[in-house]
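Tutorial handout. Part one gives the primary structure; part two gives the three-dimensional structure as tokens.
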Amino acid sequence: MQPSPDTRTAPLTAAFPVALADDAEAVLALMPASRLRPAGPFPVVVEGERVTVPGRLYHDEPPAGAVALLPPRQRRLLHCLYSRHHDGTVRQRHLAEIVGSTDPWVVPFVVQLVGEYVLEILVDIRDELRSLAAPGSPGRLAYGRFLVDNPAFFARTQRRVVSYWSCYHRSTHRDFRAYPGSTVLDLLRSAASDRAGRPWPDLTPSGTG
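Part two.
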């Protein structure tokens, strides 16, 4: 039995702005079918447009040779989607291809990974997003706008970082401020504060837990 269309592509077209619909369809046509629906979709606003990003995907990866033939923007879309894969190793591999992008529609995929539990992914994001500290940098502007436009999502991300630190990483990072997730949140709050013109709320512990 073939998977129904909505288990393959339909929910995923909503993960990107309408202007990218043709590119998204081209990417989705390349992705192997999945018998499981995307799980845990969450809505965010990207430059004034509501999109719905999948929480988890269960598609196998397409052949690397086929991915290499995609135009650059379509490759970024594909890497965004597979950064939502159920396998953390796959998520990390595809994150590496997009974390340096300042495309506004890439930003929610990176921020969502900040609020997850894989420490190696947090380290990768921390190392790449250090550029957000530079005033007026493209990344600072892109992330600042996204976070200010999605305050509830950012608040939830801050709380998740603290929760996963407390549950899984507290024994190796006793001081939250020395934890990679704390550094990432500092960078994100700085970008949001710049955009908002006021200090952004810090929902994390002040020091050693």
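Part three, for discussion. Residues 151-169 form the longest helix (19 residues). The beta strands are 42-46, 49-53.
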